[in-house]
Design goal:
The protein has 540 residues and is an alpha+beta fold. The chain contains 13 helices and twelve strands. α2 runs antiparallel to α3 and α5 packs antiparallel against α6. The protein is elongated and about 145 Å long. The N terminus is likely disordered.
Length: 540
């Protein structure tokens, strides 16, 4: 089924609620959509009852959210970024480029057919001819028209490094000089094989390198998408922190206004000093300034998140903080195994080493003599008519051995070989350094992640204590049992605890997605990060 939401839902507003489909998409689990303008959901293997429920849920969320407003969880933001952001679009195109390189390599392993035509070619020139009557060479004018066609089928043989070919040719010639006449030359079929007997086998090296390149491209795609998720976490929590600071600033302004009113009443009965009253007025002015600054920061963070997710700049976004994450036990040994297997950086270095080995082999072989073979067997015939050119064809055989021996090159080939060998040593060292750096990064990230898990719980407990302490201090100040300094200190601790809790959540999720990026493994589900590449990009 294909469902167009702007047809099914009268309240649909294209361009404003496109990204509100994130909750519906996660519920329906559709195929990824490519075009933002269509708002299309492809539904596979789904009954009508589930579809109706999903539409009802979506309609309710849109009606509740209002025009141009979104409520995003962290999971929704990550899914949306991986689907609609400019970085996600760039990553898809990078993968598509590598995919078509792989398809080209596979196509080169299949038989190829080509047709070469020269439908018309006219010559008018003076050439040398032998006059038998006078027993001398003479110049004579010559006019000639020719045409030719050839069909060739080739098949590369990777193991041997040669090419098997099957050919069929036809040529026509018409003379307009003193010797007028027509001639047809045909090669009905010719089967041959050519290769370097002692030389560089490019096909064999391509067969080793190209599959590795494609596997690297696939892992780079997953790695880049996890990088998008990691960056989404930063933008998400930047807005979450800005929203929290804005909420705290509004609460602080309201509380400052209330406390100022209470302070003025208490000052009128000489219950507080003029200094305390001035402090309360200063707190209100500071609260107003803080609210304005928080409004600017929340707008900046909202616009940054909307731009990164590919949303309209006018979209109002409200983020919902994730709850306390479930404990995940990640063992360093397992993570290192997955990182070694899946890291695109390590695969890139391995590819570089393999290409360096190829260059060493090529320069070593080219520094020696080269022996090539070309052998073919077929039929040919020459006649004055087209039909006779294919009657009673004659046997045509060809065997050719070519030998090339460098005698004096003043060390050029030897120098190329030494350069290639040194490049191989450099590539091997760089690959080892990359592996050690990756292992260190994985270990540090896992240890940091385990610490962040504990800090999230501690930060949540600290926030709860700070909220309760501030509420009690506020009540005590109202009844006159706490001074303004105690209240200000308690309020500062509450705000600091709120910010620390959001920061601890941010650090936890950044560490979590970084581990996913380094290992390309989902430790929460215990499976590799799955990606249906062909379906994702729509390639076949």
């Amino acid at each position: 089924y294909t469902l167009f939401l702007h047809d099914a839902l009268p309240i649909w507003n294209a361009g404003q609620h496109f990204c509100d489909t994130a909750c519906l998409l996660s519920y329906l689990q559709p195929a990824p959509f490519e075009k933002r303008g269509e708002q299309r959901v492809i539904i596979e293997n789904m009954n009508i009852e589930r579809l109706i429920i999903a539409i009802a849920l979506f309609a309710g969320s849109v009606a509740a959210s209002g025009a141009g407003r979104m409520v995003l969880s962290l999971g929704d933001a990550v899914r949306l970024a991986n689907d609609s952001s400019l970085n996600a679009f760039r990553n898809r195109n990078l993968y598509a480029s590598g995919y078509w390189e792989w398809r080209t390599f596979k196509a080169n392993r299949l038989p190829g057919m080509s047709l070469e035509l020269t439908p018309a070619q006219y010559y008018r020139y003076i050439t040398t001819r032998y006059d038998s009557q006078q027993d001398v060479d003479v110049f004579r004018s010559q006019q000639m028209y020719t045409a030719s066609a050839g069909l060739t089928v080739t098949q590369n043989v990777d193991f041997l490094g040669g090419s098997l070919y099957l050919e069929s040719d036809l040529e026509y010639m018409r003379n307009f000089g003193a010797m007028k006449g027509n001639q047809f030359s045909s090669v009905p079929v010719r089967l041959g094989y050519r290769q370097n007997l002692i030389g560089y086998n490019a096909f064999r090296w391509e067969k080793r390198i190209e599959p590795m390149k494609y596997e690297k491209v696939k892992r780079e795609f997953i790695y880049n998408m996890e990088t998008v998720s990691e960056e989404t976490v930063r933008h998400f929590f930047a807005l979450a922190l800005a929203q929290t600071e804005f909420r705290l600033a509004k609460e602080n302004l309201a509380a400052s206004d209330t406390l100022l009113i209470i302070g003025e009443r208490r000052f009128s009965i000489a219950a507080i000093s003029q200094t305390d009253l001035l402090t309360l007025r200063l707190d209100k002015v500071n609260a107003e300034n803080a609210l304005e600054n928080a409004r600017i920061e929340i707008e900046r963070a909202r616009l940054s998140l909307a731009t990164y997710l590919g949303l309209d700049s006018d979209t109002e976004i409200e983020v919902v903080l994730p709850g306390k994450p479930a404990a995940i036990n990640i063992q360093e040994d397992r993570a290192l195994v997955y990182a070694r297997e899946n890291s695109p950086a390590i695969m890139s270095k391995r590819q570089t080493v393999l290409e360096a080995q190829r260059d060493v082999n090529k320069t070593r072989v080219e520094s020696m003599f080269n022996l090539s073979l070309n052998a073919s067997v077929g039929f040919n015939q020459v006649a004055r008519t087209f039909g006779e050119a294919y009657s009673h064809p004659l046997r045509q055989d060809l065997v050719s051995l070519s030998l090339s021996i460098p005698l004096v090159d003043w060390g050029v080939r030897k120098g190329k070989y030494n350069i290639a060998r040194n490049n191989l040593n450099v590539a091997q060292i760089a690959a080892r350094q990359e592996e050690l750096s990756m292992e260190q990064d994985v270990v540090i990230t896992i240890r940091d992640f385990n610490s962040r898990q504990r800090l999230v719980g501690s930060a949540a407990e600290a926030l709860d204590l700070a909220d309760r302490a501030y509420a009690q201090t506020l009540q005590r100040f109202i009844i006159g049992k706490a001074d303004i300094n105690t209240l200000t200190l308690s309020h500062s601790r509450q705000q600091e605890a709120s910010k620390n809790y959001i920061t601890s959540l941010q650090n936890y999720w950044l560490s979590y997605y970084k581990i996913r990026k380094l290992t390309l493994f989902d430790f929460e589900l215990g499976v590799p990060i799955p990606t249906d590449f062909d379906r994702t990009l729509g390639v076949k």
